[in-house]
From TrEMBL:
Family statement drawn from the similarity comment of this UniProt entry: Belongs to the mTERF family.
Signal peptide feature range: none
Keyword annotations: Chloroplast, Plastid, Transcription, Transcription regulation, Transcription termination, Transit peptide
Region (Disordered): 18-43
Gene Ontology cellular-component annotations: chloroplast
GO molecular function, one term: nucleic acid binding
Comp. bias regions, Low complexity: 27-43
GO biological process: one example: DNA-templated transcription termination
Principal location listed in the UniProt entry: plastid
Protein name as it appears in the record: Transcription termination factor MTERF4, chloroplastic
Gene that specifies this protein: LOC115705074
Subcellular localization, as worded in the UniProt entry: Plastid, Chloroplast
InterPro entries named in the record: MTERF (IPR003690), MTERF_sf (IPR038538)
Amino acid sequence: MASSLLRGRRIITKILSTSPKFPPNSYPVSQSNQNPSPQLPQIQNPSRVLQVCVFSTQFPEYEMPSVTWGVVQGRKEKLVSRVIICDYLKSLGIITDELESLELPSTVEVMRERVEFIMRLGLTVDDINEYPLMLGCSVRKNLIPVLGYLEKIGIQRSKLGEFVKNYPQVLHASVVVELAPVIKSLRGLDVEKEDIGYVLMKYPEILGFKLEGTMSTSVAYLVSIGVNPRDIGPMVTQYPYFLGMRVGTMIKPLVDYLVSLGLPKKILSRMLEKRAYILGYDLDETVKPNVECLLSFGVRKESLASVIAQYPQIIGLPLKAKMSSQQYFFNLKLKVDPEGFARVMEKMPQIISLNQNVILKPVEFLLGRGLPSGDVAKMVVKCPQLVALRVDRMKNSYYFFKSEMGRPLQELVEFPEYFTYSLESRIKPRYNRLQNKGIRTSLNWFLNCSDQRFEERLQGDYIEPERSGPSFCMGGKLELPGSEIVSDDEEEESDNEVLYKRTVSL
């Protein structure tokens, strides 16, 4: 048996040494149809030789050294290995159409290791089919280094599978050349170290950004319009997507449009610092239609800036449906006509998102105190904050008004803001001070002022005449009651600063 095997090997050696030469990496399709060389000796045991040749072709790794198989294997061996691996992948339900141009490992065992490693992360066959190129990543050269680095910078091990599912391209990245510089750049933007993982989970595509590209230009533009550089980090943590937005086509057109409505850049920059997601509102599809919607419902053009400053989210809501519903509700239940509803929107645009059951409770409380529905409607239009108050707080203030002050209900109709002040910290102390001095004034006079102004009024030798509250008109001055005794510091404040202090509720 041994001598027969030795004799077969010698015959094969002689065949190979005397067979015609072929160019490198090219193999004849079949030698059975070619004329055999007359010098070749007769093979005594052809079946044995065929068995040895087939074994050598199909499983070359058993006879070849463990080096880069692409160098050692010829084209035919590569094709055979690819067919075997693809058959294995197909047996798992993996579609191999996109793997034609991908260099695959030489053995099924190596591919099985990759598939099992990926599936241990929590990915399924469907996830692999979504991005089959991940099968070209080596476990030791790609998967382990990348996943280890991601875990190191704050992504929990239990969420690595979800991260890879959302952004499988990360498996091809170099930790040193591509990933680490992006993380360093985020830290340079003042993103806290413990927030890095949170930012990446929200927007994993950030790992593929070029540092000198969109990310740097977005930050530079926002800083140029007044955003505090120290607030860029919190903005990235809240809404990292703006780092991938182009300035010329997305950010700048939105900023220019909001400024054209009357919003000063200082106010707009403060809005963006607190609510960076405003940058994600589509200008043509969402923002402009919402502004037109506000105008169509009676909101005055000069009040648009104030409305947006008070409630920036309003330009990104499904506004038409919400306003139609709330306007109908106000008219039906609160007896507030459309014009009154527009005034409510100007003073408190948050009303558009307030639950109707919440709105009804304070209104029903006022109606239960004997106030006519028409007066309650006037109170709501004059002070929309009423509909957002807690009823138990209103009860305490009302009982103090009736039992201690003993004043007529008409004063509440004229000054509904009474319910918005704290009973313990403002109403009671100031009322007691007035009682001790024997002064009787309106609710507006002793409540609608700062502590300093109240002291000045108590020390004055005359009763300061009552005036309406502060009013703001875009393009004009902010007129305050008692402007003749406003301090010098208040007079020096710009219109933008006053607008920010009095109308922005961030």
